[in-house]
Design brief:
The chain is α/β, with parallel strands linked by helices. It is built from 9 helices and 9 strands. The protein has a 7-stranded parallel beta sheet with strand order 3-2-1-4-5-7-6. Helix 4 packs parallel to helix 6. The longest helix has 14 residues. The chain is globular, with a radius of gyration of 17 Å.
Length: 220
């Protein structure tokens, strides 16, 4: 069943959520996130650094503490917070993570943010329709993926729920499912390229631990 998330209480905090391995985090992540903060009028943006993405191979995956540390470094002096909250919640799949977040933070309104590359494979995500019913979704355009994503299985289901980009500042008033497509200038940076150039990048983040930006727990 669709949910109505009208913002009747002006004390509610608005938070954008973006998941990923951040292996490592880089300036492209930051640029897209700052753009989304401005485009959607967000109070904060949370980078949910995944303990393990079931759709990605474990090969070449750096330790969680190093990935979280790289994300915190990229998030400095911004409304972005890097968190490994999925480890604390004990969740693997995004649908379960979001369900627990909504219950844990009742005074926060969340919007899920992902790239067009993720929209292309969204129909492979476990309980992806439940994600769409829990909170609005903003999709960031990515050259090379947009046409395929728009023609893909998930978008065929979403088509009747698409909102115009000019309505983006009213997302807290939307009933769900709701999806808005945001155009962002191309950014060539990628974690894959960084790993190829510096396979042992995570050695720069050898620390005793990294403090989670949301829960404040120490991640070792």
């Amino acid at each position: 069943m669709a949910r109505t998330r009208a913002r009747t209480d002006q004390t509610l905090k608005t938070v954008g959520l973006m998941g990923g391995s951040f292996n490592p985090a880089h300036g492209g992540h930051r640029a897209i996130s700052l753009f989304a903060i401005d485009a959607l009028g967000l109070d904060e943006f949370w980078w949910m650094v995944s303990p393990g993405n079931p759709l990605k191979p474990k090969k070449d995956m750096a330790p969680l503490a190093a990935r979280l540390a790289s994300a915190k470094a990229q998030a400095r002096r911004s409304p972005i917070k890097a968190t490994a909250i999925e480890r604390e919640l004990g969740t693997v799949y995004t649908a379960e993570t979001l369900r627990k977040l909504v219950a844990r933070y009742p005074k926060t309104q969340f919007i899920w943010i992902m790239g067009a590359d993720n929209l292309l494979q969204f129909h492979h995500w476990k309980r992806w329709r439940d994600i769409a019913r829990m909170m609005p979704i903003a999709v960031i355009a990515r050259p090379g993926y947009d046409a395929y994503a728009i023609a893909g299985p998930a978008m065929a289901w979403f088509r009747r729920f698409v909102r115009r980009q000019g309505q983006r500042h009213h997302w807290t008033e939307w009933s769900t499912p709701a999806l808005v497509y945001l155009r962002f200038r191309p950014d060539p940076r990628s974690a894959t390229a960084i790993r190829r150039a510096d396979p042992y990048w995570f050695n720069r983040y050898k620390e005793l631990g990294t403090r989670d930006g949301v829960t404040r727990t120490l991640v070792l």
